[in-house]
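Reopening this ticket.

The earlier resolution said the output was attached, but the attachment link was broken on my side. Pasting everything inline this time so it's all in one place.
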Amino acid sequence: MSVAGASLTINIVSLIIVFFLAFSDYKKNNFIAVLYWVVLTFLVLIQGIFISSDLLDVLNIQYLGNNITPEGHLLASFIVLAIIVVVFIMRSSTSAVSRANRVCTENNNIHIKDSLYFPIGYYIFQWFALFVLSVSMIYLVGGLHSWLASSRPGAEGGTVFLVLFGLFTYPLLLKLSSAYPFSIKKNDILLYAFSVLIIASFSRILFLFHFVILVICLVYNKKSVNLKKYKKHFILSFLVFIIIFFVYGAYRDVLPQLPEGSRTFTAAINLLVSKPELSILSFQRLYHVGIEGMSGVSGVLSQTLRMGTVQLDFGMSLFTGFFHLIPGPLRSLMDPLPDYIASMYWYHGSVVGGGLENIFVHFSFLGFILYPFILYYFSYVLEKNIRNNIKKTAINDKFLIYAIYVAYGLQIIRGTLWLALMYIVAEICILYMAIFLFRIFIKKKPLMSRYY
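Inline output:
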């Protein structure tokens, strides 16, 4: 058997094991583990099969900036299989997840016996702030035309604005996670919908993280979690993912390829229909230039085998995330430190380096030893913590913090660790801003009064 054939076999074996684990976790109602296995399959294992198939006929292949050899890809495939097996062993050896979730009747200075509501001023403030932030963000990226015609509109300092949109998702999320039976209003749903749609227009991956937090709040909304009850919800969530990532994503991908002045919706659709290979609708293009789950780690290991080593940053590039949270004018005062840290990364052709690639360039082979424990923590330990905090307090910040960890923790598979750290810190700050507003506006009403 050739080296490429061996890597193909290993990736298929890994895929079979992951399917078994995902199905088993689904039967155990562990939505979070299923989510992580699905993401690992989509971003790492399927791309690994693509790479192995391509290497059957050539001695090396280029995936974006990664020059991949059969030997490097074989080593990467074996490491991924070893990681999956270690997680499987840890999962099998630990005790069953505790499903006891007691609802507290009094916490966070809010009592279940109180009749609580939010005045109209709460929603007026939220809508006004959302409008101002939206206009400011669109102006920052160059106006309405740049916002609509760019594949990934962005500007210096835009990250802070983008993170702030998460504030308007919490009127709904705080109510869903609360032990108090808050009445969910249309304004809560509409605020969430408008804010995440605006987020999706700037960053589809950030939209995914917010959407995952919502799904966690819906799935873990009762003391007894039963995934079979949510089949329709999962189908709907999958359709939303397809529409936002593939349909809308493909539309935004082809817009810059149209001549200036003819970037219309009709022209973009016609181009997509006639040449789907220009967008992520082509899986060949998607896995060659749009994803680096397996190609990144195969590329870095190919270079290691070829040259003996790569430039390791020992975690220094993790600080990049904190630099991105600093407004542009203040960040410029710190030059050249951010540029120096960024220069330590092993190559600069990456879209978003995958988690396996990143942990290797941070900590060498020690990173691969740590990785299964990190993956196990996010897939199983956090799920247990979420169960233990279902409907536990009236303002259930612990539950939402764990949900944030799970959502942004997907970066350990999909992307750079500094992005995970940056967004986790930023999102927790936004959560407590939302809780502050929640406390300011919440009102008590006589029991005989109608809720607003």
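Reporter confirms the inline version is readable. Residues 95-106, 447-452 have pLDDT under 50 and may be disordered. The beta strands are 61-63, 66-68, 106-107, 110-111, 116-117, 443-444.
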